[in-house]
Amino acid sequence: MDVDIWAWVGSTQRELHEAGNTGLAMALGDVPGQALEGRFTQLDVVAPAIAQHAETLEKPWLEFFARYWHLVGRAGDRAIGAVALDDAVALADFAQRDDVRDCPAAPGAVEVLAMTQANTDGPGYAETRLATLGAALNSVGPDSLAFSGLATQYVAALLDAGQAAEAVAYAEAAVERLRGEGREASWELGAASVRALLAAGRPDDALAALDASTGFKPDDPVAKGRRETLLRSQVLATLGRVQEAVDALPDLDVVGDHAREWVEWARTVRMLTEGIANTWQLGRILRQWMSYFESVGGHRARFELALTAGHLAVARQGLWQARLLADYAEAVIAELRATEGLAERVAELRAAADDAKELPPPGPRDELVAYFDAADGRTADPERWVGWLWPLSGTDLEATRRHTTTLGFLGYAPVGADVYWKTVVEDGDPAAAGDEDISYLTGLLIEAGQDERVETLAARLPQTRSHLALARLHRARERWEETAAEAEQAAANEGGLEALRLWSGAVQQLGDNVKAAEILKPLLDSGEGEEEDVWRIIVLSTAVEDWATVRAAGTKLGMPIEPGEGPIEEEWHLVRVILPAPDGSQREVLAVRTGPATARLAIPQPRGMDYNAGDVVVIDPRPLEPIPENEQERESFVIPFAGVTMLRPGGYTSWFFDGAAPSEDEWAEFNEVLAERGWPMWVYSDENYRVTHPATGEQLPGVFGWIAIPPAARPAELDAVLDDVTEQWSHPLAWLDLAREVGIEAERHERISKEYGL
């Protein structure tokens, strides 16, 4: 993105503010942060909304800005490939429109298209990327901030084309061109040069280049730390400096949420098996990563991960997995555009598996099931047990159960489903199979995405089990009406507790809390339900304000609820309630728990939220975080709960205040005055917030936040109180929206906002 774009963003925000589009203006400035900081839930909601609104306002540059950053968030850290390819092509076409091509950011469309193509199949799109990137680079010079990003992608394309020497030369030339303009290369361009030197067989030079580029300013500052240490580990591993490479390698909890790093991390780990534990847990994670790339169209990444994971499996003698991964990699070849040498690499993995020695089982073949059951669940290696049980699977039912479910646990549900299907359905009579087998098989089929087989299985089962199998399938696919219908039929035919849970859950998803509660309430008297069912009854009954049932269920759990009738409105303890925000993110709101499943929000919320201080909400009583075992930590721990639904709005209205921070005494009086009236206040600014002194221009500590007043209080009362309590402050406070609402001194607050740069 060219530097001029940020001046344009600022002016566009001011235009939107002046036009009354305050929410859009605020969201606009946050979109790049959402893309780079990994706030993708927000980004996937906010960016398309801005783009759509920009189209309505006929602001094509604004539309381009939103669409560009959305793609950066998708093709960048998330490494989305084929799934985003059409959108990337559309953005590149959009950037060529007459009313867009002059936007300083327009070259970014070519960069993000190249990233998406690389994610899909880097070598397969190498020549295409070189052509489009080359044309874009011919239209911009090193004086543009677009240059580094385009040059970085060009180097990556050369590497994917197998032109390592050319990549080294191009990277060095690009760095020199930037220096000639008095500019420094981005860290990403420096890292591309390091990778080129590695590919050219010059690891010593790569390490020197990495050291030289460490001070370069990154385009993605959030990712630089982990990406740099990963690259350093790779270089050191190539040099044979194993312990240093192990020390530099980022932990799984650092790279685990960043798909862009997965292939490089796995390759580096393969070079470091002498210093890193090569375990079944690692194999399971790599299989999960492959599944992720299946979902986003990262075909080349799937292939590379499969081969890497396969060789790691051979090294730890997980030979069955290595062979399955060879099959997996071979199947992926059909999705790739450039396939030269790939079949040979798959054959190499198969040969390695065939040459390796199988681990002997821990006991006689006919005793393996007993050995499996006796194994310590915390220390046993499930990968080895899959290999040991495989000769029995499909012939011995007990062994088949354990073998196939363990396969599913390790990420090979389709393989387990095929074995179990043959045993129970093809070679047996599913109508005569046990409930446990049908439940396990249905779960494997659903996890493997074999929906047609679930339907075939259901057609061969007795009525109740047939309805249950279909209800499980519909629930997994979030088809709530179908889930409710099938589960109701199962419940009517003695489907037991599972049928009731499925039915109630589906009915709740359809918005009928009353019926959902009625379905489960008989469990209170019958005693058939478990503790989780009683809690579910409490939540559902709270949502429909059936307080008699809430009290009865609470008593069953031994909760100290005060006797009586009507709403339960006690003062229990502080909690954190997690609620949705309009931008797709979640907000954590401090609240007071008032009953088994209720909490009253204590913090004022900005305008535009669906809830505010004083609202009573239904919460899910299952803590979202474990309660600390340490007593000292437990004393300060505030338990987080998920918000379920609004129970009773408090009717509070929030008003914004902003200005220079007062003295401690002034602030104490401010808080005291508001607390006396029961008007909640919360500061949303942090210690970094600054405002400008109108006389000297110096930066002053600032403060902004929201005050909420109940429906019985009029805005004019708040205005008068604020005017009185801040009258003697060294610097005035502004509450512009409130002043406009009550029609008192709005001009003064406008002047304060302007003078202090609020």
Automatic annotation (TrEMBL):
Protein's UniProt name: Tetratricopeptide repeat protein
Protein origin, superkingdom: Bacteria
InterPro entries, A to Z: TPR-like_helical_dom_sf
